[in-house]
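Let us practice reading a record.
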Amino acid sequence: MKSNNGLLGFLIIVGFFILVGIFSVDSTPIKRHRRSTSVRSSMNYKGHFRPTHYRPAVSMNKHAVRNKTRSKYYYQTRGKYRRKKNK
């Protein structure tokens, strides 16, 4: 009779640890980096052919954030649609 109580207690403890292990695992998926996007071949406004190429999802340039904010600031303040038209 004692061996059954010991076995039952062991199974309860093991079951508890299994349940804790199952619920402690994070169920959110790991974020993967976006892959590069394919840019289709086309003709530009001058009639030149532009071949298909891949645009990287993330810029490898160390100054990419600085350049992006600079460009955004330019087009919001002095962009080509806000410049005065010289006649």
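A brief commentary: Residues 26 and 71 are 40 Å apart (CA to CA).
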